[in-house]
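Narrative summary of target 7.
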Amino acid sequence: MKIMEKSMSDVNSNDIIDNIRNVDKNGTLLDVLLEFEKVLDEVGMYAYKNWSKGEIAMGPKLSRYWLHVKVMYQYDDMPDPRAGLRLTKLGCEVKYEQAVLKTPITPKSPEDLDGNGKPKLKSDTVWLIDILMPRKFVDEFTDEEMAVGDIKVDTEALGNAEVQGLDDATNQQQDI
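Modeled conformation, tokenized:
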């Protein structure tokens, strides 16, 4: 777990909105985010101060073995860093960074517009929590076959057999 306070990167609110739209368009990314949230919940992150106040700023970005998500918090709502230790015990990388969130103000007069006629930007200091999680924690089991020893079992056929009652005691004797 690293706390980096020196580098102040800029975060544009429009980039966050675009990220949310991309997640909304892609059901798979939404499922991955739900699984990510489930892992945070199961590890007990929300028991720590302010962890429930985070907003997704970037991601999820998937690579072969990793899931990368940045969660944003208002500066006064910095989440308890001790919670990050729970994730590092799972093999996650957790980094804390201060950043500047730039959001357009609502123009009420011509002075609220810049030289191009766009609303001026308001700057607020925020915390970005950069989480790199092993993908194995968020990948759902989707195999149609699973191996039991040297035997491959068709999980769909297994489920159908259970529905038909082929797994109860009376039907098991018929195979002998």
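Residues 113 and 119 are 4 Å apart (CA to CA).
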